Amino acid sequence: MTETIKRYRTGQRMSQVVEVPAGASMLHFAGQISSDRTLDLDGQTRNILAKLDTMLEEAGSERAKIVSAMIWLSDIRTRHQVNAIWDEWVPEGAAPARACVEARLAEPTDLVEIQIVAIK
Amino acid sequence: MTETIKRYRTGQRMSQVVEVPAGASMLHFAGQISSDRTLDLDGQTRNILAKLDTMLEEAGSERAKIVSAMIWLSDIRTRHQVNAIWDEWVPEGAAPARACVEARLAEPTDLVEIQIVAIK
Amino acid sequence: MTETIKRYRTGQRMSQVVEVPAGASMLHFAGQISSDRTLDLDGQTRNILAKLDTMLEEAGSERAKIVSAMIWLSDIRTRHQVNAIWDEWVPEGAAPARACVEARLAEPTDLVEIQIVAIK
Q: pTM, whole model, 2 decimals?
């Protein structure tokens, strides 16, 4: 249950601190890029979040159990676009800790990469 | 107690490996930037570390219980300046694991961002 | 034992999700660069992986118990070279979650940095 996660200074985008309860099984994800690299930034972001939903479910978890998220953008100035989609995707009251910085990604067409840690 | 954390190859700046004891509650923090973006690099670094002290205390933790720290600098050549402040801030014998790389941060005025994981 | 780690969508390079069993002691490593900065990319990569083997053993762990790996490259286009060495180093069926992005590292001669999280 998501009640086992304690969050501090929580907003819709992120919590400043997320407490993983003792004894929780943790899920470490690989960094996810869009499975369709021809998509624009909005499309790539939605593609990644859909992949995360699928993979969370496969591993017996869900969005509300994400502890921490790392977002890399090929251009940090595009973060407002990604944030708008992210803010809708995150369940109300269950935002993970988060960091977002710029980095050159595997291919020039990769505009965003997201990596998460969750509990079961 | 900080005795529950085991550190390997520990220096004043970082430990090469930090062992989180089984059964510890973990605190995942969001990446922290300076709340005052007009400060110079020293000021931003001190501002972030003061924020971390406050947030650690709020969550029932403390500096000596930091497990790992990620530092992003907008210019990696400035790391010696940040390290000098960091080395004083870290409690003797309780340095976390650490990595420090360059990345473009949210705003051009953001010179440093620090993200930590701690135990309670 | 490595049986305690559960992996989802596993390949030789990485698993998409790696599950840390409840109650495992976790080892957080510092980002590792080559101890010999005059080496070429292949040499630096092998140097780092050898360091990780030593440090894993010191802490009572091993390659097959790595949960997650972060790889920074000073030039992301060199990743195929690093991947070839990495793929051989990772024990079959025991690949960690992974992300790999470009970042400027401490010194211009640092071509690759690797940071891992493992269980005991």
A: 0.97
C38 φ, ψ (degrees, to nearest 5): -90, -10
Q: Which two tokens stand for residue B117?
A: 């994981």
Residues 46-105 of B with CB under 8 A from C: 67-68, 76, 79, 96-103
Per-residue pLDDT of chain B (120 residues; tens, 9 = 90+): 455 899 999 999 999 999 999 889 999 999 999 999 999 999 999 999 999 999 999 999 999 999 999 999 999 999 999 999 999 999 999 999 999 999 999 999 999 999 999 999
CA angle A30, C94, B95 (to 5 degrees): 65
Residues of B in contact with A23 (CB under 8 A): 23
The domains located in chain B, with CATH, are: 2-119 (3.30.1330.40)
CB-defined contacts B:C, below 8 A:
66
- The phi and psi torsions of B81 (rounded to 5 degrees) equal -65, -45
Partners of residue C57 in chain B, C-beta under 8 Å = none
Question: Would you call B1 an interface residue with chain A, using a CB distance cutoff of 8 Å?
Answer: no
Q: ipTM score of the complex?
A: 0.96
CA nearest neighbour of B4 among B18, B16, B14: B18
Cβ–Cβ of B22/C25 closer than 8 Å?
yes
| Packing angle, helices A79-89 and A41-58, rounded to 10 | 30
Residue A117 near residue A26 (C-beta atoms within 8 A): yes
Residue B19 φ then ψ, to 5°: -100, 120
